[in-house]
Amino acid sequence: MISIFVTIQVKGEFREQFKEASLGDAQGSVRDEPGCFRFDILQSNEDPNRFHLYEVYQDDAALEAHRNAPHYKKWIETVEDWFDGDRTRVEMTTVFPSDDGWRSQKPHLVNW
Fold it and tell me: Nearest 5°: phi and psi at 27?
């Protein structure tokens, strides 16, 4: 499995709209994408305009499928003008849980 950690600084006046739009992308990702096993939205305690996205995908093909999904395209078109600077992105390989562990957790992600 691969994971990505994205940091986004948002213009303060768009903070609440950003959270709402991002929730739609996160829910669509775990609900509609078989290769997405995690999509967390985190807000910094030190700077409420800084957000982190933690996502886990089966492989590069699943990540590419995410970038082509309707909910992602809607999200990026909606929020990109709200960014205050460039996004940063770190790509990693998951160590724990195991790949089977991620797969077994997938059904529980859609119980909001």
Answer: -65, -45
Question: Which own/partner contact pairs does 94-101 have at CB distance under 8 Å and 24+ positions apart?
Answer: 94/1, 94/2, 94/3, 94/56, 99/1, 99/58
Question: Could you tell me which residues come within 8 angstroms of residue 1 by beta carbon, excluding any fewer than 6 positions away?
Answer: 37, 56, 57, 58, 59, 93, 94, 99, 102
Q: Give the model confidence (pLDDT) of 67-94 as tens digits.
A: 999 999 999 999 999 999 999 999 999 9
- What's the rounded Cα separation, in Å, for the pair 33 and 57? 9
Question: Domain coordinates of the chain in residue numbers?
Answer: 2-110
**CATH number at 2-110:** 3.30.70.100
